[in-house]
Design brief:
The chain is an alpha/beta fold and about 475 residues long. It contains 17 helices and 13 strands.
């Protein structure tokens, strides 16, 4: 969500500057089309897989497996810390469940502000409805017109037109023709679209600027329609000057508009020649398409569809299993780094640690719970007993069923008869995310040690795991 927000802001901002440079004031009808295209394209491009166009069961075994067994052979300092963590396992689990994360707080703030904007939009619709309901509109063909004797602003909402009583019949005709143009061209639809988008994308500054441009363009279109009726240009410009006020009804197209000077300037403006106009509009479309493609590629790179947080088990003062001069922590990290390099737009790999450092269990859990990952995997190696790949899931976790299925998928890709999945109530598996502890083999003898310590074999292991993650991502 954060990546999408950043990319959509950049995308919409670039499109806005393209509009200002190549489209605005060149052709009002194309401007309207381009502004609406910007809204749809700029906000949806980061979600579109445009870059894709350029791309050519094992039965579970119930074992009462304690955390001490898997971390056997650690230093005395680590054993002491592990013992303390195990003794307070329930306390740690409860506190992590109840502790609000930064991401959750931001989500709540976003939700509250969104609700405020939805209520604001609903209130605007209600005000217009009440004004229409309280006014005695008369039929003028397909229009519903009400001439108010009160000093009210003139506006239109679809085919409903409300204008203030004007004794000068020529001026009244100007205003009525102007508002009919708003109704004929369905400008209310544009305003409703942009207001709905603002309810959910209120944080995007470019959207607010585009709203202003859309309203201004509506006025240019309506003024253009009036002049096409054969009305005198100077008299109409004087009418705009006399009637424009800073007040405007939200969601309604109003004759009274604050940007008087630009409207009058546009009335007298000479439009560019057809070749120059075509060149400007064509350039705008090419640049707009480039922004869409850029946004799509950027979104795929920064926000993969399925995100895995990978923990290279142990690290720092905690070497893990030690056999034949090989430390478990080193192999775990090498395989994790190889996996990270395989990341693509479908499956992204983020590492909990990228260097040889010690991270305690509480910190690891906190990182997992506050991340936006879809899956958490902790890599480990066994020692002392020869067996295949082992996957552990916590049967007491809220997402136990999903974690179990993922554990089965991770193990099955190795096609080893000795491989299996097990239940394990480890502290590291008490996260809120689907979580699996994956033991990639053992250091029982020199042959196994040499196999796991080989860069070639580490790459093969990483590729197998990534292949499995692709399958898991497709299932979701």
């Amino acid at each position: 969500m954060i990546a999408y927000s950043i990319i959509s802001i950049l995308s919409l901002s670039f499109c806005y500057f393209i509009y200002l440079a190549f489209v605005k004031a060149k052709n009002h009808h194309f401007s309207r089309f381009f502004l609406l295209l910007i809204l749809v394209g700029g906000l949806s491009a980061p979600l579109l897989p445009i870059s894709n166009l350029f791309k050519n069961n094992l039965a579970p075994v119930n074992l009462d497996f304690s955390a001490e067994e898997i971390f056997a052979g650690h230093s005395g300092e680590l054993k002491s810390e592990l013992s303390n963590d195990l003794s307070s396992e329930q306390t740690l689990f409860s506190s992590e469940e109840s502790k609000p994360s930064t991401l959750n707080i931001l989500s709540i703030i976003f939700g509250l502000i969104t609700i405020i904007f939805i209520l604001r939009f609903s209130r605007s619709l209600l005000l217009i409805y009440r004004k229409i309901k309280a006014s005695n509109f008369e039929k003028h063909g397909k229009y519903r017109v009400f001439i108010s004797k009160a000093n009210e602003e003139s506006f239109s909402f679809f085919n409903y037109i409300l204008i203030e009583d004007e004794r000068n019949k020529t001026t009244l005709e100007y205003i009525l023709t102007h508002e009919k143009a708003h109704a004929d061209q369905l400008h209310s639809v544009d305003l409703i679209i942009v207001e709905v988008l603002l309810c959910f994308f209120w944080f995007n500054p470019a959207l607010w600027f585009l709203k202003k441009e859309i309203i201004q363009n509506h006025e240019f279109l309506a003024d253009e329609a009036v002049l096409k009726q054969g009305f005198e240009r100077n008299d109409y410009a004087s009418t705009i000057f006399n009637f424009c006020r800073a007040k405007q009804t939200s969601l309604a197209s109003s004759f009274s508009f604050i940007n008087t000077k630009k409207r009058i300037t546009m009335i007298y403006k000479h439009h560019p020649s057809k070749p120059k106009l075509f060149l400007n509009l064509f350039s705008a479309l090419i640049l707009f398409a480039s922004v869409l493609v850029f946004s799509s590629f950027a979104a795929e790179k920064n926000d993969p569809k399925f995100l895995v947080l990978l923990d290279a088990g142990h690290g720092g003062i905690d070497p893990g299993n030690l056999k034949n001069g090989i430390q478990e922590k080193d192999i775990n990290l090498k395989i994790a780094l190889a996996l990270q390099k395989l990341s693509d737009g479908e499956v992204g790999i983020h590492l909990l640690r990228e260097k040889d450092e010690f991270i305690d269990f509480k910190k690891r859990l906190e990182t997992v719970n506050t991340s936006n990952s879809d899956l958490f995997i902790s890599l480990h190696l066994g020692a002392g007993i020869e067996h295949g790949v082992q996957a552990f899931y916590n049967p007491e976790a809220n997402n136990a069923a999903e974690s179990k299925q993922i554990a089965e998928d991770l193990v099955s890709v190795f096609q080893d008869k000795a491989s299996k999945i097990n239940e394990g109530k480890f502290i590291i598996l008490q996260s809120k995310k689907p979580s699996v502890l994956l033991e990639l083999g053992d250091l029982a003898n020199s042959e196994n040690s040499n196999y796991l310590n080989s860069e070639v074999e580490q790459q093969k292991i990483a590729e197998r795991i990534f292949k499995s993650l692709k399958i898991i991502a497709e299932k979701r």
